[in-house]
Amino acid sequence: xxxxxxxxxxxxxxxxxxxxxxxxxxxxxxxxxxxxxxxxxxxxxxxxxxxxxxxxxxxxxxxxxxxxxxxxxxxxxxxxxxxxxxxxxxxxxxxxxxx
Amino acid sequence: xxxxxxxxxxxxxxxxxxxxxxxxxxxxxxxxxxxxxxxxxxxxxxxxxxxxxxxxxxxxxxxxxxxxxxxxxxxxxxxxxxxxxxxxxxxxxxxxxxxxxxxxxxxxxxxxxxxxxxxxxxxxxxxxxxxxxxxxxxxxxxxxxxxxxxxxxxxxxxxxxxxxxxxxxxxxxxxxxxxxxxxxxxxxxxxxxxxxxxxxxxxxxxxxxxxxxxxxxxxxxxxxxxxxxxxxxxxxx
Lengths: 99, 237
Description:
heterodimer; A: mainly alpha; 2 domains; flat; B: mainly alpha; two-stranded parallel ribbon; 72% helix; AzlD family protein (chain A)
């Protein structure tokens, strides 16, 4: 249960940087009054970021992951969130077993 | 005290909605947290250090990336820079969510310590038809935070007992969860163009340049595509 000094420093640096990114948005948001295309671009931030985070896993890992991602996408339009996760996980286990 | 009752009642309702909305994400995060703790111990971190990192950083993606490059002694500056690259998306997320959150500036400074992909995405979805209140956000944040700190620490303590999480697909839970969240933003033409552009650019950058550059470049490509797809016609008020 020891804490190494350098590890502690690294953890504190990571924490500081992370908190800075979390609150930085507060200081730009108030100056934005968006309409038209700019608003469409701003509204696109949530799906654009979410997709960018998972794209490598879904598209670069192999066929089982790519097909399971497609199955999860189809399920996502019909099922609640937890069911979508269950379908996706079951699909990837099954596909990894047979491919 | 009668006047206070409607507020308390609506706060309770919002907190319950927060608990209900975050439950799937919290459940999906348990195997990911166990995995993180187990991997971190193999890189030489103690369970106390794992607990401390989860409590102070509380960012799964950045923590996984840090652990992958962790050596002894820890490369402090490289770890800080990698963490920044992965978490710089928080700036956009915070800017997008801030006007929709029904909180004071001080409240936001405290609340946004707990900003994660999951709670942010759920709050954005809720903001489509309701204000995001402090009670709603606090319920989500508390569950996810407690869940992450406990599951990563447990993973560190249990360590090698767990075996390979890929065996039961636990490594894919995060991806499936995000796909479900993306679907909640609908399938308008602009959204579909956004998703396609972001996915293509992120996958290509990840393959040819490497992590963590794919997050920022994919997100920017999706945002640019939305700007172009919306067209001049949408500039009418």
